[in-house]
């Protein structure tokens, strides 16, 4: 089988008052098919992202070549007729053109109706990587992505400003999300401290991160903008012929240089033991320092990385679901070790 391909010049956004049949949407995005009948086999894929109605994998017999082509259709419902940041990202065509370290599925197009965004991308079939084993590759890809997207954002005309403003990390609809507000979960750690003396007082000590993070946020806001994927999980990465493919831009934002590195390390901190995390963190930062574009201030980028890492790590280590999971697996000493590590960063 082959994946659907389309030159960047062929990408498009279509606007409709209502949803059309799948066959009509595909013909609109791939006009060379004309009115020829299409043979399509579809299956639903797992998705737990907010506002996603469904994700479907389509296998299509190309009526011209007879080959089996594959694509993914994602339906994202709109709130008050406002489209998702993922649809906005795909409409910003050419942002990551020339990327060598990351490969991205071709976007066939975006179909916008008042109630949903339909995003059609090529299907990627590959092997999910071990996340701690690709620290060096991710550092190279993220640094390149930051440079490409920063150059793109700087070069955009004024009419693009509203779209890019709406995607900016420093908008209330992003900052009010639970994972950027770890304090709301400190009460769960306080309750744990009353049950287990080993955790007593930790909640109050971790609360000291609040003023520190506010200061880091203020500094980060003034640093260079770039696109940030913000969701470096195993389900969103595939290795195909030794190439790293990145999918699922549902968490995409106009972030700041360093943000994606912090998101990756925060995710790794959440899932790995401390020995594995520290080794991967050292490898990532060493590589990131070496390959970061000279147009960025390395210290500033690493400070931003630290900021997003702390937001992510604090939130995920304090959630009641995390406490329950560590209890169930009898891994409370590891959780304590993670809290102690975070406190060394104050």
Could you explain the architecture of this structure?
The chain has 13 helices and twelve strands. The chain is of the alpha/beta class. The chain is 43% helix and 18% strand. The protein has helices spanning 22-29, 85-91, 135-155, 161-167, 172-175, 186-195, 202-206, 209-221, 259-271, 274-291, 298-318, 320-328, 332-343, and strands spanning 2-3, 13-15, 39-45, 52-61, 68-77, 102-103, 107-112, 116-122, 225-228, 237-240, 243-246, 253-256. It is globular, with a radius of gyration of 22 Å. The N and C termini lie far apart (52 Å). Strands 1, 2, 3, 4, 5, 7 and 8 form a seven-stranded mixed sheet that branches. It has a three-stranded mixed sheet with strand order 6-11-10. A two-stranded antiparallel sheet has the order 9-12. The protein folds into two domains: 2-122, Phosphorylase Kinase, domain 1; 131-343, Alpha-Beta Complex (Aminoglycoside 3'-phosphotransferase, Chain: A, domain 2).
Could you name the CATH topology of the largest domain?
Aminoglycoside 3'-phosphotransferase, Chain: A, domain 2
**CATH hierarchy class name of the largest domain:** Alpha Beta
Beta-strand level of the residues, as a percent range?
15-25%
Mean pLDDT: 93
Number of separate strands: 12
Rg is 22 Å
- Per DSSP, the total helix count is 13
